[in-house]
Each structure stands twice: as C-alpha cells, then as structure tokens.
UniProtKB/TrEMBL annotation:
Pfam families assigned to the protein according to its UniProt record, in alphabetical order: Abhydrolase_6
Gene Ontology molecular function, alphabetical: hydrolase activity
AB hydrolase-1 domain ranges (all copies): 45-264
Keywords: Hydrolase, Signal
Gene3D superfamilies: alpha/beta hydrolase
PROSITE patterns the record matches: TAT (PS51318)
InterPro entries assigned to the protein according to its UniProt record, in alphabetical order: AB_hydrolase_1 (IPR000073), AB_hydrolase_fold (IPR029058), Sec-Metab_Biosynth_Hydrolase (IPR052897), TAT_signal (IPR006311)
Span of the signal peptide: 1-29
Protein name: Alpha/beta hydrolase
C-alpha cells in the first residue's frame, strides 16, 4: 500500500510541474517567428473645390475620411486661371510623401487633370460632378457641349483690376438664385451661408484650354450629380465614359459634397482602396 502523500509533497509537485510547463511555453513562444502587425499606408486624399465654393464645401467628406484613418488636405483654390491654379495644386501634392488620391469638384476637375500630369505619386483621380477636359478643351466649352446648364442666367459678371493694368471679369452666382442653381436640396440657411462666402472665378479660367489630361494615364472615378444645373448631367456622363472612369450616379445638385457627403466619401474610399501599396 502506498503511503498517503503529505500536503507539502503535493504542493511541491504542482509547483515543479507548473515551472516546467512555464519553461516549455516560453521556449515554444521564443521558437515561433514573430509576425509583424503590418498595415498598408492609406493614401493622402487631396480635395480640390471648384468655382463658387471654398474648401469648407468638403467639411462633411473630410470628417468621414478622417474617421477612416486618412490624411486629408483641402487647399483653397485661387480660381484665377487654369494654368496658374494647376501649378499651385501641383506644388501642394508635391509636398505630400506617399501615394495621393486627387479629388476635384466642378472646375476643380479641370485643375486636377492638369496638375497630376507626370506626377508619379498621384495614383487615382476622382471627379465629383466635375470637368474632365482633354488637351485643348475648356470648362466653358464642355458646359456647352450638351443642353441643360442654367449657369449663364444665374451668374453676374463683375470687374476687377489686373496686376498688369486694365480690367478682368469674374463671375459670381446671384445670391437670390444660389440655392436653386448650385445647392438645391441643401438646407436654406446652409445655402445662404454658402452664397455669402462663395468664391468668384475669372471668366478667363473657364475659357482657358487644358494643356494636359492626366486621366489618360491615371485610373479615375466619377460621380454624376443627376440634378446638376451647372454642368449638364449628360456632359458629366459623356466625360466619365471618355475617361473610362468607374462611375456612380447620385440624385443631387451640383454642390453634392455638401448635400450628399456620404456617397461622395464612398467613391473616394473605393478609389483609395484600389491604390496598391508600394506602387
């Protein structure tokens, strides 16, 4: 008959077993390779507003992109001339390290098409109810390609002095027509604030022909605003098809980034996810 084990003996045996298991566990863990928690770097999203708006028109989109972990830039566009505006935006994107998703609304589409030419770090172009000109085309010419725009009747020309002397012409949307023309569906008070802070664009900028078309080499996405009164929706669809852009349509006014920031953000995120890390 075996002698009963004392409490001290049992305790010692348990402690010895635990120590052995602990040593084995540590050794096994040390033997396993440690896999790094690698996470691809998200592209920086650069948002370019168009005429009669400012960078605040992207506020709802910016909040959503930042929640998704993106770095976002939304610079103020001078709206003085296509060549000079594109050069300015090129200086902005050249200051960004890593891949860039470049987004343009309205006239901003013409700007990104020119600014992104030969920019290897721009990996995607996203057009939001925007112009997508080919070389030699202007924003104004594309507006007139299809019927439907009422912008001409809604704008008021005003003169401003040119640095070289003489007078230039810039356009603003008449405040009493701003909501109907630009932001139908946006709450009235919001539209009133937008009208008060709208940025005028020179007539020369809308008439200036493009000298580059980056969409011919860079993958693009397009959101058609089906209730747009600035750019005819038929023109938007035609430009999207020509650029072979992945296209969505939203029942929204020209100021779709204000009225419907959710679908705008979703399209930008689709473009962002298509950017392959390290490419």
């Amino acid at each position: 008959m075996n002698a009963p084990l004392s409490r001290r003996t049992v305790t010692a045996s348990l402690l010895a077993g635990a120590a052995a298991l602990g040593t084995t566990g540590v050794a096994a863990a040390a033997a396993r390779p440690v896999e790094p928690r690698w996470r691809p770097v998200r592209p920086t999203v650069v948002l370019i507003h168009g005429a009669f708006a400012d960078a605040s028109s992207w506020s709802g989109v910016v909040r959503r992109l930042q929640r998704d972990g993106h770095r976002v830039l939304a610079p103020a566009l001078p709206l003085r001339g296509l060549t000079s505006d594109a050069a300015y935006i090129r200086s902005v994107i050249d200051s960004v390290s890593g891949p860039v998703v470049l987004v343009g609304h309205s006239y901003g589409g013409a700007v990104i098409s020119q600014a992104a030419a030969d920019a290897p770090h721009v990996k995607a172009l996203v057009y939001i109810a925007a112009f997508v000109p080919d070389v030699g085309e202007s924003a104004l010419g594309l507006t007139d390609k299809y019927p439907g725009s009422t912008l001409g009747q809604a704008t008021a020309p005003q003169s401003y002095p040119l640095p070289s002397g003489g007078q230039g012409t810039e356009l603003v949307i008449k405040k009493e027509l701003f909501r109907e023309q630009f932001a139908a569906g946006v709450p009235t008070r919001t539209a009133q604030v937008m009208a008060a802070g709208q940025r005028p664009i020179t007539l020369a900028a809308l008439q200036e022909p493009a000298t580059a078309a980056a969409w011919k080499k860079i993958p693009s996405w397009y959101l058609v605003a089906t209730e747009d009164r600035n750019i005819p929706p038929a023109a938007e669809r035609w430009m999207a098809r020509r650029a072979r852009a992945r296209t969505v349509a939203v029942r929204a006014p020209h100021a779709v980034s204000v009225s419907d920031p959710g679908p705008v953000t979703d399209l930008i995120l689709r473009a962002s996810r298509a950017v392959r890390p390290g490419r």
